[in-house]
Amino acid sequence: MLNMKGHEDESGMVLDIRNLSSPARSAALNRFTDESVEVATSVPGRKLHKWVAGSFCLLCILQAALNVSLRLALPLQQDSMKKELEEQKRQLDYMASQVNVLTNEREELKRKLEDFAHYAQQGWLYFNGSFYYISSIAKSWQDSRDNCSQRGAVLAIISSREEQEFIRQQQKVMWIGLTDRETEGVWKWVDETPLTASFWYSGEPNNFKGRNEDCVVINHYYSNENNWNDAVCENEYSWLCEKHM
Ligand code: 2F8
Ligand code: CA
């Protein structure tokens, strides 16, 4: 411990400079000043150096710890992000396909709506998924068939009792799309499907009086639930077109 009153010599004893002679006091003071400067400059410098070194070590340790944790944590985080990304991509693909399906459905519905508006405006009758056109003029069976074709339809194909009832209620003699022109006695619809449910009037088909009656017409016996008749294809009647929606 140093102070202005004294000076610590090599033996550790404190000298009182007031008791010294003038030259000895000067020498002691000079020595005190040199050592004080040395002490004043060197002690805080060493502390700072130690502090900086310690902080640097701490930083190095922290950096190393951070590196290790990042190395351990990053692959795990990358894995989970990759999985999440794949899941989101899968969901995105699914949604894109759904958008596609819905877009097609919307287009289909739009087309149907336009068709409905078109056929309804043209005076066609709607029943159970089909529009029906009843001609006001008469033609042969083949010309009637062609006419339906030009209208984007076919001569009516009757496939149920309900449909037969609907057609019978129109109370008109009309060609329908049934014929045995290809093979006598083998009745086929114009869409090539064979006859399953039939509604022949009693005694029909009969090739009346030995005539070749190969085409089918709705007979005028409207009161009877079964009113089909085979008639000569060249006869001229009204006709019934059907457009299945
Ligand atoms: O014109 C031919 C047609 O004539 C009659 O119906 C009006 C016959 N019906 C009966 O004899 C009951 C049909 O078979 C014949 O096709
Ligand atoms: Ca007949």
UniProtKB/TrEMBL annotation:
The keyword GTP-binding does not apply. InterPro entries: C-type_lectin-like, C-type_lectin-like/link_sf, C-type_lectin/snaclec_domain, C-type_lectin_CS, CD209-like_CTLD, CTDL_fold. Pfam families: Lectin_C. Residues 127-242 form the C-type lectin domain. Keywords: Coiled coil, Disulfide bond, Lectin. Residues 85-119 form a coiled coil. GO terms for molecular function: carbohydrate binding. PANTHER family: MANNOSE, PHOSPHOLIPASE, LECTIN RECEPTOR RELATED. This is C-type lectin domain-containing protein. The gene is LOC116328094.
